[in-house]
Structure formats: C-alpha cells, structure tokens
Specification:
The complex is a heterotrimer.
Chain A: E1 8-16, E2 22-31, E3 36-40, H1 47-54, E4 62-67, E5 70-71, H2 77-83, E6 84-87, H3 91-94, H4 100-110, H5 115-128, H6 144-156, E7 162-166, H7 174-186, E8 190-195, H8 198-204, E9 207-212, E10 215-221, H9 222-227, H10 229-234
Chain B: H1 10-34, H2 40-54, E1 57-60, E2 63-67, H3 71-78, H4 80-98, H5 106-131, H6 136-165, H7 172-204, E3 220-223, E4 226-229, H8 241-268, H9 270-282, H10 284-292, H11 307-337
Antiparallel strand pairs in B: 1-2, 3-4
Helix pairs in contact in B: 1-4, 1-5, 1-8, 2-3, 2-4, 3-4, 3-5, 3-6, 3-7, 4-5, 5-6, 5-8, 5-11, 6-7, 6-11, 8-11
Chain C: H1 16-19, H2 22-37, H3 44-61, H4 65-71, H5 76-88, E1 93-96, E2 99-102, H6 103-129, H7 132-141, H8 146-174, H9 186-213, H10 230-252
Antiparallel strand pairs in C: 1-2
Classes of the chains: A alpha/beta, B mainly alpha, C mainly alpha.
C-alpha cells in the first residue's frame, strides 16, 4: 500500500434510520496512514452511526467510505471487515466466547487462519495488550479494564489497517486508563478514537474532529480545538473542572 | 402438541420425516433471500421467543398438552421460509435438550407445528395485507387473523396425522374435538400475542418486520441542505415475484402431500377402512354427541355419515382450503400489483 | 457460543462420557431412540434391558439417579395422557379393580410410556453430559445446515437475554404493585411480550454487530478442530448397537 493513500476517507456520507430519523447529514473527512485522530461530539451527534458505516454494517444512505483505497460495498465486505477493527464501547458485547483465547481467535479464524499460525496470531495480539497469561480464562471473570484490553486484542488479532475505538476510556479507573493509553501509543496502526473524554483525546490524539448534528463541525489540532471556548460551547463539549488544555503536556 | 416417541407409528413418522426434511431444504434455499446479515440474529430471537412461548402448556381435556405455537409470529417477522426454520430449530432443540417431543417424532412435530402453522399463517397474512389498506394497522390486524387461524389448522393437521398413524385406538372424533376445541381457545391467545408483538415491533423498528417490508417509504435525505432520495436498500427490495410464487407452491404442495397421505392410507390399508365400518355401529352415539357440540360440526362433510372419516376429511379440507383460498386471494391481488415490484437482485454475500 | 457459562441441564464432570466428542454422542442418542421406538411393544423385557443400558451409561457418566429422575419429570403431561388412554380407547375391554379398561388402550399406554420415558432419559443423559456450545458444534459437524446451526446458536444466546429481560420487567411490574394472577392479567402480560421482544432484540443486536465486525458471516469459525477417533466412535456407538441386538431379539423371540 503506498503511503499517500489515506487509511480512511469519508465523503458526503448521509444516513437515515428506517424509522425516518436522520443521523448523518453529509460527513466528509480523511485520515492519513499512521495518524491518531479523535472524533469528539456530544451525545446524539451521530458518532456511533458513523462508526457503523466504517465497516459497512450500516449502508443504504448516500456518500462513500473508502478504506485504504478500497470502497466499502458488498463486494469488498470481507476484506473491509478485516481492515477496519472496531472496538465497541461495552466489552461485554465484544467478548462472547467462553475463553479469552477463543475470543481473540474468532476474527482470524473467520478469515480462514488455523493451526499454529492462528495460535501465533492470538499470542501476539494478547502480548500487545499485556494479557498473555489470561489466555485460558473466561472473559467474564476478568476486571473491566482487562476485558477492555482483551476486546482491543480481539481486534488487533485481525491485523487491521485502522483501529476504531468507541469510548475507550469509559468506566475505566485511572490506572487502567493509563495502561490502555500506553498500549494504544505503542501500536503502529492508524487510530480513530470516538470519545467525549477530552483530556484522553488530548493525551493520545494530535488531531481531532468534532461531529455535531450529523456534520463535521471542526477539524484541527486537538489542543487548538479544546482551547477554543466558543467552539466548545457551541457543540456542548465541556472540559473537566480545572483542566486547562494549554498547560497539559501532550503525548504524541 | 409435542408428540413423544412411540405415539405415531414408524411409517408415518418416517414419511413425515421426509416431508419435514424436504420442507426444510426448500426453506433453506428460500431463507437466503429473506435474511441479510442484520436480520440473522432476529431469526434466533424469534426462535428463542417461540421457545419461551411454547413453554406455556395448557392440559388438553382428553389427552395431550396444548400451547402457543408461534409459527405465525415467525412467518410475519422473518418471512415464511425462515419461519419454518425457526420453529424447526425450536423443536429440534426441545427434543435434544428438554426431551420435549420425541426425537423420532421430529418429522411429525415439524410437519405439524412448523410447516402447517407457518404456511397457513403466511398465506393468510399475505392475502389480507394485499386486500387491506396499506397501513401499519392492517399489518397488525392481518397478524391477528393469521395467528388465530394457524393454531386450529395445526390442531387439525395433528388430528389428521394421528388418524393416519396413531398407535392407540382413541376415536378420531374425540381427538379432533379435544384438539380443535382447545386450540381454538389457544388460537385467540396466540393471535393476541402475535398481533401485540408485531404491532410493538412495527411501531419502533419497522425494518425488522418482514411482512411489512412493502410498506416502507423511500427515505429523503438532507445532504448539506439539499434533499436527496436515499438509494433503495438492497436486501429490503426482496419481495420478488418468485418468492411469492414459491410460498404459494409450497403451501399447495404441503396440502397436497397431506391429502395424498390420506388417500394413500385409505386405499392401501383396507383394515383401517373395515375398522372404521365396524366402529361405526359401536360408538355411533358418542360420536354423534361429540360432533354435535364440537366446533368441528360446521366442518363436517355432509355426505359421509361416518364421524371419523368425516372429521379426517374435514381436516384435509380445512388445511387445504385455507391454504388454497388464502393464496388464491393474494395471488389474484398480486397480479394487479405486479408492476410495482422491481426485479430482485439475488446476489448475496457469503 | 452464548456466554461461557454452562446451561442448567448440564452437569459438570470429567467422566468418559463427558469427554466423548459431541457429534458421536448425538449420533448414538439418536440411533438408540430409533432402535427403542422400533421395538415391538409386546417385548416388555426388551424395554427393561434398555433401561439397564441407560443406567450403565448414567453410571459411566457419574450422573446420579436422583438428578436423572428429577429431570424425567418433563414427561408428566404425557404420563397423564397415557393414564387416560385405557379409559378413552375403544375395542375389547377388561375389568381391573371394577373398572372397565380397554385392552388396546392399555397397550397404547404402555407403548407411549415405555418408549417415551426411554427417549426422555436418553436426551436427559445427552444434555447433562454435553455443553450447549459443544452440542451446536456437534450438530454442525453432523452436517446440519449452517443456517439452522446459526439460528440455534442465536436462539440460545437470546434465551439468556430474554430470561434476563423478563426478570427485569417482572421486577419493574411488581414493584409497581402488579401481580399476575389468572386470566384477567393476561392482557398486561401479552402487552409486555411486544416490549420484551424489542428490548431483547436490541441487546442482542450489539453482540451480533461485534461478531459481524470481526468477519462473522453465518457460521462459527472452527478454532479447534475436534475429530473423533475410531475408538471414540465405537465407544459411543456401543449403546445403540447393544440396543439393536436387544431389539432384534425382541422381534424374533
């Protein structure tokens, strides 16, 4: 894949649910290879709807989504699903197999991997999130933070082109939150992080998009967007009490 | 209505097994058009729902148990083919896990509770939806009627199978009276639950109701201030002429097979006929009594004096007429509507 | 699939019966029931032998008799039917304890009772020694069409979801002073059904999305290839084969 091809390209995306409720009103943006981008927006802005378009679970509206040059349509669906790894908000939705190992193996096995190759893929993904020793444990016996890490591993095992995380920091205690941040920073993969945890976005993502009322309302460096009080207020985004984006140290 | 092992004789079990397998094979082909990847879990939910609903058992006076069947709900929510599959899966799992319904009686149970209910209900539903105005309320009303009729239809089919291959010598009149009588009542409960469920689903998630797919309107999308037509969603455009024809054919074939069964047994089994003749004198009085206040009385076939034969024929005719009439109505109407149905594309992702 | 927990019918254990590959157990159970059903009802001793065979399997599986007998209670509605049969069936009558009973009815009752009970016992043994997920894998390996396996697996997943939602809704109803007693309250219960359906669907839908996102396309990927060795097959099929011998004796004697 040549480096000029964007990892993800969304243009003119509009979508309405069958009950007539329209969630997206023409979304355009593009993410280059290796970028880490935060998608910010208040509740009901259409973030989850947008995420479900990225791997073709929702289709039928107008506009296009392209992943590493490959358009999301019915013909490419299997390949698209392999390239776009989505980590859902609730790890309990993501982990449905009886053991951690089988859960992580699910994706690659569905793609046709088996035997030693599959085993190696599972081990590598679990090592990336530091959950190697929990391989044979049932997921529901792990702590919430551990489950979220396993959920990330289930997606990493598919070696995706782009990792999409839906509210990765929700319900995590500060230690788990930091551990997850370290893991995400160590990965060599394009990341799109959907969140309203603004300090986390600032910590991890140099660039941010603001999705509001179904359109991209702003696109720019995270620190700049968070410092623009006018913009923040207009889109119902609030920084935690006492947090100043200008003085926070950025990780990049 | 779950038939245990040893209740229906081996030949009948085997033949119904073949019928069931054939119907499932047809349904598997048909279901590919009905299900897309978003509705696949819906089929599982419908199955689980039916599983739960079938747990509510009412004892039937002269013998077996009666319960809600769920075939109508399945057909309307996920389509007739998938509906057959859902109920069949429920019966299979009940047999394996809960030993509810014998494993060797699976064919009987599937024919009776999965195929008859689904086909009768869907044919009727389709017909009604075509006749009634195109509103959501009509869908609910049609579900009510379809469910109401499907349950006694299954009871009739059961009676018929029992008449052909029952291993015990209980008079068919008694079985029919008990089964159909009770199932008319159960049918009301089934109709209420089906209509309420379909109504509730259609109010919140109309996209999940297979039977209402024709009702969805084209969405208008506002893109950067301009109104644009949403492209037709691919799987939603499924109501193809072919699939309708197949439903109709399946219904017809099922009723013909059932009818064929009877004539086969009646002619190839003179013992059975002699027995009928002999019994006629013995229990004439009870039979007459039973038939008089039974709901089947209206269905009695006039020229045939024997209650057993009459009851059995009423069964075939009941199932057959319902299926054929229901299908015929919608067939006739569909021809008029055939211009609005666009040709389907049958490419499915695997 | 479903969550990792075992179903209530399953009895955890490490017996040789538990260890058999699920498809061999399914095949054996099915073959056994077929043999039992095709045994003539007059050969009463044969049914006794079948019961002994099942008892041996239960012993090998270390399933206690009490557990097995309690699970057999599912049969009660049919027993009621069987008991009624001698009274309602026609034909030759005999007098027992002053009651006039039909001979064919008695035979019919015995037939249903004996074959039904053995069938139920075999299924109970299968369910108590095999996990749900294994059962599904077994069905898949016995070449049950994948769409059926898929529906069955979603059904089991949703079974849990529905029970859970039903409990929540019941608590919500009862905490507002509603109690379902008799026919008058069926209306409320029926209305709950629709709500239950939507709630369950939307909860299960998210799991499905997660599966689809990881490339699920209708059939569970095979992670561990389990094959049955010839020894395992012969071990599992010992039950129906022995039963077949009994059955043949039943026809000839």
């Amino acid at each position: 894949m040549d480096p000029v091809t964007a990892s993800l390209e969304v243009s003119g995306l509009a979508f309405a649910y069958p009950d007539g409720h329209q969630a997206l009103f023409g979304v355009d943006f593009s993410i280059a290879r290796g970028e880490r981008v935060a998608l910010l927006g208040p509740n009901g802005a259409g973030k989850t709807t947008l995420v479900l378009h990225l791997n073709g679970i929702l289709t039928g509206g107008t506009g296009t989504v392209t992943v590493a040059g490959l358009p999301v349509d019915r013909r490419n669906m299997a390949e698209i699903r392999r390239r776009v790894g989505i980590v859902f908000q609730d790890p309990d939705d993501q982990l449905f197999m009886p053991t951690v190992r089988e859960d992580v193996a699910f994706g690659p096995a569905a793609a046709g991997l088996k035997g030693a190759e599959l085993e190696e893929r599972v081990d590598r993904a679990l090592a990336l999130v530091g959950m190697g020793e929990f391989k044979d444990r049932p997921p529901h016996h792990l702590s919430f933070g551990q489950r979220r890490r396993v959920a990330v591993a289930t997606v990493l095992a598919m070696e995706p082109e782009i990792l999409v995380l839906d509210e990765p920091s929700s319900n995590l205690d500060p230690a788990s939150r930091r551990e997850l941040a370290d893991i995400l920073r160590s990965l060599d993969v394009t990341v799109l992080m959907v969140t309203h945890d603004l300090p986390y976005a600032l910590e991890l993502c140099p660039r941010s998009l603001i999705l509001s009322e179904g359109v991209i309302a702003a696109d720019g460096p995270t620190a700049g967007l968070l410092s623009d009080e006018e913009l923040m207020r207009a889109h119902r985004l609030e920084l935690p009490f006492g947090f100043d984006p200008r003085s926070a140290t950025m990780g990049a | 209505m779950h038939v245990p092992d040893g209740f229906i004789d081996a030949p009948t079990s085997a033949v119904t097994g073949v019928v069931a397998a054939g119907a499932i094979a047809v349904s598997l082909r048909g279901a590919r058009r009905e299900l897309d990847e978003r509705t696949a879990p819906l089929a599982g939910l419908v199955a689980a729902f039916i599983f739960a609903v079938q747990m509510l058992n009412f004892p039937v006076a002269a013998g077996t148990s009666g319960h809600l069947l769920g075939g109508a709900l399945a057909a309307i929510l996920v389509g007739p083919y998938t509906g057959v599959l859902c109920v069949s899966v429920v019966l299979l799992m009940q047999g394996i896990l809960f030993a509810d319904g014998g494993l060797t009686a699976l064919g009987v149970n599937i024919t009776d509770m999965a195929i008859v209910t689904t086909v009768v209900a869907y044919a009727l539903f389709r017909g009604l939806v075509k006749v009634l105005p195109r509103t959501r309320r009509s869908v609910t009303v049609a579900s009510f009627v379809a469910a109401l009729v499907s349950v006694p239809a299954a009871a009739l089919a059961f009676t018929l199978l029992y008449w052909i291959g029952g291993t015990t010598d209980v008079s068919i009149g008694k079985v029919a009276t008990a089964m159909v009588g009770v199932h008319l009542l159960i049918g009301i409960g089934e109709a209420a639950i089906t209509a309420l469920t379909v109504g509730a689903v259609i109010a919140v998630r109309p996209d999940l109701v297979y039977g209402a797919r024709g009702l969805t309107q084209r969405l208008k999308l506002r893109v950067n201030g301009e109104l644009v037509d949403a492209p037709q969603a691919e799987p939603a455009a499924a109501p193809a002429a072919r699939s309708h024809r197949k439903v109709w054919i399946t219904g017809l074939v099922t009723s013909l097979v059932l009818a064929g069964f009877v004539s086969f047994y009646a002619s190839a089994d003179p013992d059975g006929l002699e027995k009928v003749a002999a019994d006629k004198g013995i229990d004439k009085k009870t039979e007459e009594h039973a038939a008089a206040d039974s709901p089947l009385a209206d269905y009695g076939v006039e020229d045939i004096t024997d209650a057993r034969l009459s009851g059995g024929l009423a069964g075939v005719i009941g199932v057959g007429v319902t299926v054929v009439a229901g299908s015929a109505v919608f067939w006739a109407v569909r021809r008029r509507h055939s211009d609005d149905t666009s040709p389907t594309n049958t490419n499915t992702t695997v | 699939m479903g969550a990792g927990h075992a179903h209530r019918l399953y009895r955890h254990g490490h017996s040789p019966v538990h260890a058999l590959p699920p498809h061999t157990k399914l095949a054996a159970t099915f073959a056994f029931v077929v043999v039992v059903v095709s045994t003539p009802r007059e050969a009463m001793w044969a049914f006794g032998l079948y019961a002994v065979l099942l008892a041996v399997v239960a012993g090998a599986a270390r399933v206690p008799a009490g557990f097995l007998l309690r699970r057999l209670l599912i049969e009660v509605p049919f027993v009621a039917f069987a008991v009624l049969m001698p009274f309602v069936a026609e034909g030759e009558q005999v007098d027992v304890l002053g009651m006039s009973l039909s001979v064919s009815g008695l035979w019919g009752a015995w037939n249903v009772l004996a074959k039904g009970t053995l069938g139920v016992a075999a299924s109970v043994l299968l369910a108590s020694t095999t996990e749900l997920r294994e059962l599904l894998l077994g069905l898949q390996r016995l070449r049950l069409p994948s769409l059926l396996v898929q529906i069955a697996s979603f059904m089991i997943r949703y079974g849990d979801v529905i029970t859970d939602e039903m409990r929540r809704m019941r608590i919500a109803r009862e905490s507002r002073g509603f109690e379902a007693r008799g026919v008058r309250h069926w209306g409320v219960l029926a209305k709950s059904a629709g709500a239950l359906f939507i709630r369950s669907y939307e909860r299960g839908e998210r799991v499905h999305l997660a599966m689809v996102s990881r490339g699920y396309a209708g059939s569970m990927p095979v992670i561990d290839e389990v094959t049955a060795s010839r020894a395992q097959w012969s071990y599992a099929l010992a039950l129906p084969c022995t039963a077949l011998v009994v059955c043949l004796l039943g026809w000839t004697l």
